[in-house]
Amino acid sequence: MTDDRDDPDTEAESDADGSVDDAVPLTDWRRVESALRDLDGTVTATDDRIELRSGSARFAVTRDGRVEAGMPLHDLTTGRVTALAVDHDRGAIRLVTDDGEMAYEFRLP
């Protein structure tokens, strides 16, 4: 996992797939699940939690905005996410907060 908030090369572009502008709100649970299923990995979903596993990486999000993600030597847990911006080309999931800002980016290995 990387935290690229200050890296200008990872700034969201308004027209790019996976940009913050393309973020799927957690209130649209079916679209969140669909976006994660389009990534490389195995997805398990319930009414309240969606988990993606890809190799040694794992990413889980709950309807109430809690995210747990990790891979060897890296873990993240947060509870202030309102949307996900999934970049299928890069295998990246950007966490978006209620103010529309990107809080974190998780990249599949």
Task: Explain what you see.
With 109 residues, this protein is mainly beta. It is globular, with a radius of gyration of 12 Å. The protein has one helix at residues 29-37; strands at residues 24-25, 42-45, 49-54, 57-62, 67-71, 74-78, 81-87, 92-97, 102-107. The protein has one domain. The strands form two sheets. It has a five-stranded antiparallel sheet, covered by helices on one side.
Give me some keywords for this one.
single chain; 109 residues; mainly beta; five-stranded antiparallel beta sheet; globular
Into how many domains do the coordinates divide? 1
What is the CA-based Rg, rounded? 12 Å
Structure class = mainly beta
The counted number of beta strands is: 9
Tell me the distance between the termini.
9 Å
Instruction: List low-confidence stretches.
Output: 1-18
- Biggest sheet: strands side by side, in what order? 2-3-4-5-6
Counted by DSSP, the helix tally is 1
Q: What fraction of residues sit in β-strands?
A: 35-45%
What is the H/E order? Answer: EHEEEEEEEE
Helix content: under 10%
- Overall 3D geometry? globular
Largest beta sheet, briefly? 5 strands, antiparallel
* Mean pLDDT figure: 83
